[in-house]
User: Which sequence fits this backbone?
């Protein structure tokens, strides 16, 4: 048998190696613990959604239900009025989210590349938009939308022709589309901020080359800047779509009919109660409804996640 | 003179263009942001009555605030509850998301898997789903089931604790906090994203220099990582506070909203909201001043 000689050098290596192993074990333990907390909610949701309602209080059933059933989903689909609500969400909320992705980038480009009078004050307004929660403005907007007016112009014309021509925008998609069109929709302050940080980091040479070739400012923006900022676009698009999908506060205030999915989910208990023959607050139905609600966004996320996670490293939101 | 003109950049030559770029946004801000914001302040100091032609306001001083604070049931309690939650949840969220971000930023096998796993809450948090899962008061029974499901899943820790002779109150207290940690982990998603992108923006050279100078990992962390995160830390704090205010679990906002939705009382609702944001905003502002005075100055 050959004796292993322990020189100071191997001892040092051994020490390094054990330290590395300990660090990585601790790291994985920590990550798995947090991952457990994240996943357990989803597993819990699935566990109840596929369960027969009678098994909810059955102590012998912990995670895996004894009998799989899709009946809960059928009830949930009906109670949510799923396909109609889904259509409403897509045409109103998601569309306005996508509009916002573009309009915010235009405003942010103005802030990032040009200097003009009052820029500092206006950028402070952007920060204020991040800070002020949407409910603050929603209280008075809900009144304003009922008698919509452009700086008193419509009211003035109305008085001249003796008829009130101020349109009532409540209950129409306009309450979401219009602010997004101007770049002041849901959380647009944050989006302008993200774009601003990104555009500031873009090299100017490409744009200068475009100017020399005779392109005007807007063409340059469309043809040169936008194609090279796909990363920022992806980040903002995901956030915008997810937040619009989840919006509940504004929808419940502005939209009475044409309810989006988030509102119909919040009214799930009462709509199940109104449907004859079902218990009012069965856990299985609500969990099935929750799964139906998050499924589209989860699918979208799974499709985009690889790019999204790579993009977070590169966007440099914080600059 | 000639050379100056040559060196002028695109920015100054096209300052008018810049203004055109933000013009739509500027109109939008006036119409959909600044005006309603001022109007809610006005609402909170007046008596608002709505009829067919529009709405009318009559000055009422601090009546609405007085009503919200002293006469309306629950408001003061909700406010205090919400402030206590604010005081312990926000530090926990910040510390937890920072630790996770630091871990996720290091090199190891399966990093991208864990990253995509941890961003899943970003999708679901803030949605109505949380009312069914979280500790919202409206669905107490569901949340009770959810919470026992966490802990009963593998081992029934609670009964072990009881058998060890620890009194029931202590056990309940401990498990109350443990359950809250579950909720708080879920609120860390976006903060982790922001911290990671902040960590990525720290130049690699700084670490190389410190390695050459012989700094330990610990010193590296405290003298490079933490100070360099200054701006993203501010952003994360702001985001967390805003998120806390917007959350569907926030009782004060919910109450103000119910007043608005069910009874169409605009003035009291806006007074409730403004009072709440004045308090929360005031506390945040004080914290920022302290942060600037102590931490930032020492780092510089």
Assistant:
């Amino acid at each position: 048998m050959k004796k292993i000689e322990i020189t100071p050098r191997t001892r040092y290596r051994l020490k390094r190696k054990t330290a590395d192993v300990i660090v990585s074990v601790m790291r994985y333990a920590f990550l798995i613990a947090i991952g457990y907390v994240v996943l357990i909610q989803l597993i819990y949701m699935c566990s109840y959604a596929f369960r027969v309602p009678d098994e909810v209080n059955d102590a012998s059933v912990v995670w895996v239900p004894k009998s799989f059933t899709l009946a809960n989903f059928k009830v949930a689909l009906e109670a949510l009025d799923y396909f109609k609500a889904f259509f409403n969400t897509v045409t109103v909320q998601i569309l306005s989210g996508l509009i916002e992705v573009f309009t915010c980038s235009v405003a942010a480009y103005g802030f990032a590349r040009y200097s003009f009078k009052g820029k500092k004050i206006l950028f402070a307004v952007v920060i204020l938009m991040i800070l002020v929660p949407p409910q603050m403005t929603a209280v008075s907007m809900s009144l304003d939308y009922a008698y919509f007016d452009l700086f008193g112009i419509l009211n003035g014309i109305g008085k001249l022709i003796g008829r009130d021509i101020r349109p009532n925008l409540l209950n129409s998609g306009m309450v979401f589309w219009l602010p997004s069109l101007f770049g002041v929709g849901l959380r647009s302050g944050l989006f302008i901020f993200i774009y601003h940080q990104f555009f500031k980091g873009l090299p100017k040479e490409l744009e200068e080359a475009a100017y020399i070739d005779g392109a005007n400012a807007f063409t340059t923006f469309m043809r040169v800047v936008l194609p090279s900022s796909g990363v920022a676009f992806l980040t903002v698009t995901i956030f915008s779509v997810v937040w619009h999908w989840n919006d509940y506060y504004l929808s419940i205030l502005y939209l009475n009919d044409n309810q989006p999915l988030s509102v119909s989910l919040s009214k799930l208990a009462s709509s199940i109660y109104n449907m004859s023959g079902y218990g009012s607050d069965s856990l299985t139905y609500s969990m099935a409804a929750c799964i139906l609600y998050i499924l589209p966004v989860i699918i979208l996320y799974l499709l985009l996640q690889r790019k999204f996670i790579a993009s977070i490293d590169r966007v440099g939101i914080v600059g | 003179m000639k050379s100056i003109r040559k060196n002028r950049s695109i920015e100054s030559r096209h300052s008018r263009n810049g203004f055109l770029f933000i013009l739509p946004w500027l109109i939008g801000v006036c119409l959909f942001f600044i005006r309603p914001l001022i109007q809610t302040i006005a609402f909170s100091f007046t008596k608002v009555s709505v009829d067919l032609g529009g709405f009318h306001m009559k000055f009422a001083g601090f009546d609405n605030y007085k009503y919200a604070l002293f006469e309306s049931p629950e408001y003061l309690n909700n406010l205090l509850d919400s402030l206590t939650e604010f005081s312990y949840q926000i530090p926990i969220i910040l510390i937890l998301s920072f630790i996770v971000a630091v871990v996720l930023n290091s090199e190891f096998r399966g990093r991208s898997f864990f990253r995509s796993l941890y961003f899943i809450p970003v999708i679901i948090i803030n949605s109505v789903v949380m009312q069914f899962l979280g500790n919202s008061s409206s669905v107490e029974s569901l949340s009770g089931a959810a919470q026992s499901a966490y802990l009963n899943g593998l081992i029934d820790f609670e009964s072990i604790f009881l058998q060890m002779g620890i009194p029931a109150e202590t056990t309940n207290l401990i498990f109350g906090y443990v359950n809250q940690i579950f909720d708080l982990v879920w609120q860390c998603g976006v903060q982790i994203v922001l911290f990671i992108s902040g960590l990525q923006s720290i130049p690699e050279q700084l670490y190389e220099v410190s390695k050459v100078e012989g700094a330990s990992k610990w010193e590296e962390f405290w003298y490079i990582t933490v100070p360099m995160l200054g701006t993203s830390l501010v952003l994360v704090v702001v985001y967390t506070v805003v998120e806390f205010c917007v959350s569907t679990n926030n009782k004060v906002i919910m109450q103000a909203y119910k007043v608005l939705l069910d009874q169409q009382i605009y003035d009291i609702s806006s007074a409730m909201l403004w009072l709440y944001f004045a308090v929360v905003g005031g506390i945040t502002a004080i914290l920022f001043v302290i942060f600037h005075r102590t931490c930032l100055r020492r780092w510089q």
